[in-house]
Amino acid sequence: MDHQVNRKSAGALWIAGMLAMGSSVGAAENPGEYLSYSWKNLAIQPQFDTSAMYTDNLFYARGANRVSDVMFTVSPGLKLQLGRDDGNQASLEYAHDETILIDHSDYNTHQDRVALRLRFNRGKIRVEGSDSLQFLSSLLGGSAGQAQLLVDRVSLSDIYRVTYDWTEKTDFYVRGTHNMVDFDQRTFLLDQTTIEGLLGASYQWTPKVRVTVEGFVGNSSIGANAGRATGPDSLYYGGFVGVRGSFTSKLTGSTRVGYEQRDFASGESSSASTPAVSADLTYQFSPMTTALLRYDRRTFPGPQFANQISITDSVSFEVTQLLGTSGRWLARGSVRFDNNDMTSATLPPGTTGAGINVQRVDQILVLGAALVYQPQPWLSCIAAYSFEDFNVTFNSAAASGVLQLVPYHNNRLSLSVAIGF
């Protein structure tokens, strides 16, 4: 017990040291010049984030299996930026995360993240794109089969959009998207790769509002892990009609309404068709208070079974409040709710639970609050709290026995310091 207390005391001193370091940097003369180096059109900007987080449910368990711990994460990084903020620009960012746990050091882990962003304008043509490659390793909740298991995975995301300004009021654009996640073969989660193409046009209806029309088609393929059976690709297609811009002096954002159909390429009977809706709206209550509402309804491949589709509704609401008149303090509160309705799917012969219908509904509720202090553009200090609740409803008791999904809730408290532009 004494050894445990001493280790936690050392952790508290480590937090204090990090915060003190941030204060000392802020007190240095012209500290910003040490965080951004320029050579011709190239800017080199070192980054450094550090955080300490307490969780009361490290392994996403329930009842007597819940355990708590404190984890420290140090994230050094580097950003290279070529070009100007108001012109053609390319940037490359790299960050490394090193995570250390106080009581469960066997789960110490590290991650690497790389991001590339591009913006190019020439005449009537505009190009915007981003690529993100992440080598991730962390504990994940949900299935009892992956409890107390560090889940290694590789995530790759690419999105590029080319816009042609045909007239002052009308433009046409194409967008290509590629997403891939490759899980460790020990997990019961499926590897997924999705490629999507979108063609759209927008028209300047009023000086502040544009009308958009879009059509898309995509393909999702899966790969099996931990003995799961592989399955067919799923094809999806649909379209949106929407508006974006400033709707009033206080309300800005975008809304889209359309339809989406997803079918298995093999011709299996399982399919999903649904209204496809998205909204991203910001309301400025006052110069000090802003609210953000997001909603999205789409279809996705099921995360565990190759012949299952998830109709997903995700809604979030966030309020940001500036505190005082210095512009350095703000408070933020947020709530997010996800409802994943998994379609009817029967396990194939030769697998555990063959013939059982694994239809279910997953629900995730996340509440958050944060206090942010930013004394300099390059320095942020954040104290945050979050609550996460996962619940699952099975279509049958037999499905519950096969899936072994574990409902859980989790409380987290964190302190973090971020240095860099």
Secondary-structure blueprint:
Layout: H1 2-27, E1 37-39, E2 42-55, E3 69-83, E4 89-101, E5 109-122, E6 125-139, E7 150-165, E8 170-183, E9 191-206, E10 209-223, E11 234-246, E12 251-264, E13 271-286, E14 289-301, E15 309-323, E16 329-342, E17 360-376, E18 379-394, H2 397-403, E19 408-419
Antiparallel strand pairs: 1-2, 2-3, 2-19, 3-4, 4-5, 5-6, 6-7, 7-8, 8-9, 9-10, 10-11, 11-12, 12-13, 13-14, 14-15, 15-16, 16-17, 17-18, 18-19
Residue share in β-strands:
over 45%
Largest sheet: 18 strands, antiparallel, barrel
SSE ordering = HEEEEEEEEEEEEEEEEEEHE
Helix content: under 10%
Q: What's the total helix number? A: 2
Descriptive notes:
The protein has 421 residues and is mostly beta strands. It is built from 2 helices and 19 strands. The chain has an 18-stranded antiparallel barrel. A hairpin with a 2-residue loop joins strand 1 and strand 2. The longest helix is centred in the first third of the chain and has 26 residues, at 2-27.
